[in-house]
Amino acid sequence: GENVEQHPSTLSVQEGDSAVIKCTYSDSASNYFPWYKQELGKGPQLIIDIRSNVGEKKDQRIAVTLNKTAKHFSLHITETQPEDSAVYFCAASTDTGNQFYFGTGTSLTVIP
Amino acid sequence: NAGVMQNPRHLVRRRGQEARLRCSPMKGHSHVYWYRQLPEEGLKFMVYLQKENIIDESGMPKERFSAEFPKEGPSILRIQQVVRGDSAAYFCASSPVRGETGELFFGEGSRLTVL
């Protein structure tokens, strides 16, 4: 089955700096890669996703890049703000698969 | 449009008791997933259901755990004879017809504590 690895497990940045979180996956059949943000005591919420026919996607301060050859994808948050502090999860799935495979999460702290 | 509703939000059980966790998917969603999250860990897939059908239960322990999604009413994750290792947050997620968007919409979770 699919194996998704995520790094780093914790990340602290100064407000206004950028944050980058990286994930790798093992199954070349995976073609959908969402990123979820989980705030304390809440359920994960989708913040951005990318499909395998696209190399990069951007939404305001958030961007995701995908390298299918190397089987890795990354989340980039620019101009970080304290409200970006949360746990971020990457995931991989296929259109025909039944499961979303999640990474182990990155706890991001933005220091004011 | 209400999101995914889970209850109870917190549940305390003694070893050997039963735990029932309920999940009402978003309106119009017919696909339900259950995930388990241990402290400091990621989300582990347990089971994927559609109305009246278990599609994939490969992540669910063979014993003591069961799930259903009846024609009417919420999806239920049932844990019999709970043990301390069952203490975790259990998240339900729903999605529209598979293959359209792929997005999972999560509930706020049910946190089970086994004493």
What would you note in describing this structure?
The complex is a heterodimer of chains A (112) and B (115). By secondary structure, chain A is mostly beta strands. Helices cover 0% and strands 53% of the residues of chain A. Chain A contains no helices and 11 strands. In chain A, strands 2, 4, 5, 9, 10 and 11 form a 6-stranded mixed sheet that branches. Chain A has a 5-stranded antiparallel sheet with strand order 1-3-8-7-6, with no helix packed on it. Chain A starts with a strand and ends with a strand. Chain B is built from no helices and 11 strands. Chain B is globular. Chain B has strands at residues 5-7, 10-13, 19-24, 31-37, 43-50, 53-56, 65-68, 75-79, 88-95, 105-106, 110-114. Chain B has 115 residues and is mainly beta. The relative contact order of chain B is 0.33. The interface between A and B is medium-sized, with 23 and 26 residues.
List keywords for this structure.
heterodimer, A: 112 residues, mainly beta, 6-stranded mixed beta sheet, 11 strands, 0% helix, globular, B: 115 residues, 7-stranded mixed beta sheet, 4-stranded antiparallel beta sheet
Per DSSP E runs of 2 or more residues, the count of β-strands of chain B stands at 11
> What is the average of the pLDDT values of chain B?
91
Q: Could you give the distance between the termini of chain A?
A: 41 Å
State Rg of chain A: 13 Å
Structural class of chain B: mainly beta
